[in-house]
Design a protein that fits this description.
Strands 4, 5, 6, 7, 8 and 9 form a six-stranded antiparallel beta sheet that branches. Strands 10-11-12-17-18-23 form a six-stranded mixed beta sheet, sandwiched between helices. It has a five-stranded antiparallel beta sheet with strand order 15-16-13-22-19. Helix content is 35%, strand content 19%. The chain contains 16 helices and 23 strands. Helix 10 runs parallel beside helix 11. The chain folds into three domains: 71 residues, no CATH class; 103 residues, Pdz3 Domain; 249 residues, 2-enoyl-CoA Hydratase, Chain A, domain 1. It is an alpha+beta fold. The longest helix is centred in the first third of the chain and has 18 residues.
């Protein structure tokens, strides 16, 4: 396991070093759209959602959503660039509390800014609760903000104030915030710059080595900026370009892998997504190996698995469950006509699937009957009946939440980590066409079905772990994976 992990990290670093030379270090001047055009886009988006979204008022009542839409539309009083407009739209869309209804930049913006990402806030941070901890500094030879340093505020804002501001623009299932914590932690400089803008300097409050609160001032970071000779980066080292085989290996390891600890009779499986080819074969080979080696413990790491194909989630469940199961109590859409289809990318393919794969019932709703009625049975061949630990976190979402939820409470299954980002009660997804607004070209994902996995479950949050293990500044500083460490210790205490 350690060898594979080191290989993955090494190849990833090599790839990043080679590709980073293409990043440019100047700001892009974005074109602006007129207030009239942007208001027209916003009004159109509202109409599309009202006509097609199955859960527009699931968490937020209609009268409240009407106020949010009106506030957002009326706040556009002058021309705006795409970043400014996206912030307006995402603020409203986040009030739906649907993690699958997400606002993304236009394709042209993505192309335009691909190689112009700097300058940015100079620190990568891990955030949770009211805590912010340095993962790494972008400034060469930074001796103040080293890994594990605790941050207490930025530019006069407390951690909580900063997070509350950023979170207002992030879509998530229900009332949980762990998904937002994890998402911001993956790219803190990017989120800060997009929502709060770029500052020339940052006054950062932190806990110093003596345990006292101190303040340091940092400039925004740009690799080409000369910030004193002492901080000048080392001369670049030439690296050979990764081969296509190495790149494929990196990509595959990010999606799925399995290592075996024979000393502790344990298989460690990482599944980063339920999307992509080859998962069926990976599951078949993995569980065959586990059976042949008579392994007693299985650890599946799902912390970065944002979901994917439902049938892959179902397949993995079959290898582990001790009971029959179904996808949900109800899987419903409010329409399959795709009103305003000219603004919904490839709407005809989704129209075809919904008209031939679902049925209108007496309640007036469109039901995906297969997933409401079909009972799935445990696999007999290579079925695993030993001790199972599922590692979950804020990025465990969608089909991954469905998988974990079906195994929660099973006597040989222990959930370890943090609350999932995906809702335990249900979510809105299944089919996810993309709305493209005509003037701004912003892209908004549009879930077509509302899934209630189990109507007896509490609504509004993710799946809570059996053993909760929160992040720790000390663990971050030492580079320790607390969740895997505690699982290993637990397994070593168990007889097998």
């Amino acid at each position: 396991m350690q060898h594979t992990k080191q290989l993955f990290i090494g190849l990833l670093c090599l790839l990043l070093m080679v590709t980073s030379v293409s990043a440019q270090n100047r700001e892009v001047v974005l074109p602006k759209k007129s207030a009239a055009d942007l208001k027209a886009d916003f009004i159109l988006l509202r109409k599309i959602l009202e006509a097609n979204h199955p859960s527009l008022y699931w968490y937020t009542p209609k009268d409240s959503m009407d106020v949010y839409f009106t506030t957002g539309i009326n706040s556009i009083t002058d021309s705006m660039d795409e970043v400014q407009f996206k912030n307006k739209v995402s603020w409203v869309i986040s009030k739906i509390r649907c993690g699958h209804t997400v606002v993304r930049f236009s394709k042209s913006y993505t192309r335009l800014t691909k190689n112009f990402t700097f300058p940015v806030f100079p620190l990568n941070l891990k955030v949770w609760g009211d805590s912010m901890v340095v993962l790494n500094s972008l400034r060469p030879r930074d001796k103040v903000f080293t890994r594990g340093t605790v941050i207490t505020g930025i530019n006069g804002r407390s951690n909580r104030e900063l997070m509350d501001t950023l979170f207002q623009h992030i879509s998530a299932d229900g009332y949980g915030i762990n998904y937002k914590n994890q998402l911001v932690s993956t790219n803190f400089p990017g989120w800060y710059k997009t929502i709060l803008g770029l500052d020339s300097v940052y006054r950062i409050s932190y806990i110093d080595s003596s345990g006292k609160e101190s303040v340091a001032t940092l400039k925004n970071f740009s690799p080409s900026a000369d910030t004193t000779k002492r901080e000048r980066p080392l001369a670049p080292v030439a690296f050979a370009k990764p081969t296509k085989k190495q790149i494929r290996q990196i990509q595959l390891l990010a999606k799925r892998s399995m290592q075996i600890d024979t000393a502790n009779s344990t298989a460690f499986m990482h599944i980063g997504t339920f999307t992509g080819n080859g998962l069926r074969g990976f599951f078949r080979r993995s569980f065959k190996t586990i059976r042949k080696q008579n392994l007693q413990h299985l650890v599946i790491d799902l912390r970065d698995n944002g979901g994917g194909k439902v049938y892959n989630s179902i397949l993995l469940t079959k290898y582990l469950t001790d009971h029959s199961f179904k996808v949900g109590d109800s899987v419903v859409a409010i329409s399959r006509k795709f009103k305003y289809s000219r603004y919904i990318r490839e709407s005809w393919t989704y129209w075809f699937a919904m008209n031939f794969g679902s049925h209108k019932m007496d309640d007036g709703l469109i039901h995906f009957r297969k997933y409401e009625t079909q009972q799935f049975e445990p696999k007999e061949r290579n079925h695993f009946k030993g001790d199972i630990s599922l590692v979950q976190g804020g990025l465990s979402f969608s089909a991954t939440t469905m998988f974990i939820a079906n195994l929660k409470g099973q006597k040989n299954v222990t959930l370890v980590g943090e609350e999932t980002g995906g809702g335990y009660y249900g979510n809105s997804a299944m089919y996810l066409p993309t709305i493209v607004l005509p003037h701004s070209k912003l892209q908004i994902s549009l879930p077509m079905y509302r899934l209630v996995m189990d109507s007896t479950r509490p609504k509004g949050h993710g799946i809570m772990p059996d053993i909760e293990i929160a992040p720790s500044s000390q663990a971050i500083k030492k580079g320790v994976d607390l969740k895997i460490q505690q699982i290993r210790e637990r397994i070593q205490r168990k007889p097998f």
